[in-house]
Amino acid sequence: MQSVRILLLFLFFSCPVAFSEECTTPTLGAGLLKTLPETSAVRLSCTFAKPLILGASISANEGGLNPGSRVAKKYGAVKPYPNLAKVGQKALATLAHVELEKKISESSVVVGIDLFFWDTTVQSCNDVDKSILKIIDLCKKYDKPLIVGDIPKIQHPTAEPVVEECRTKANTVLETACTV
Question: How many C-beta neighbours within 10 Å does residue 74 have?
């Protein structure tokens, strides 16, 4: 099984008091990647109080509870929280969702572990960078943290070379966007 590196974006915010009285302190700042094991459960529960789950198969609970929901459940998120993920869905379809902007504005964190996976399995990946930048811009607009996974290499003998090019392109855009 191949591991997926998780990229954390825009973790410079304070959770609104509406999520919890304990959420009045600043949460998960710039040093998150270095201090995550030391981050308090209160701060994580604040961050995952009202997640918005986006993505494809894994995020749509194919094969079990998705990673975003597992973390949210662990830190006390109260269901129901929105999950716009669908098996086989490309990010462009997710981004076209009528209520996406409203749901982002109402969430405490946006989790899209496999959000861009299917966008990199097509013959042309011209729009993958636009999709990535659009979700980043929406999260910035509402000052929401965004957690996404990079796209793993497809281990299949019939995988086309263009798929690898798209995967590399998407991961480069994600990595550039994650550079603080």
Answer: 12
| CA dist., res. 39 & res. 45, Å (int) | 11
- C-alpha to C-alpha distances, 63 to 68, 87, 90, 108, nearest whole angstrom: 14, 11, 19, 25
Q: Is 40 exposed, middle or buried (0-12, 13-18, 19+ CB in 10 A)?
A: exposed
- What is the pTM (predicted TM-score) of this model? 0.76
List helix spans (H) across 62-160: 67-74, 91-95, 100-106, 128-141
Q: Record the tokens describing residue 37, joined without a space.
A: 């094991």
Task: Count the helix, strand and coil residues of the chain and give each as a percent rounded to the nearest 5.
Answer: 40, 10, 50
| pLDDT tens, position by position, 88-130 | 888 988 889 889 999 999 999 999 989 998 888 877 787 888 8
Q: Whose CA is closest to 108, among 19, 41, 31, 12?
A: 19
Among residues 99, 95, 90, the alpha carbon closest in space to that of 120 is found at: 90
In sequence order, the 6+-apart residues with CB closer than 8 A to the CB of 65 are 73
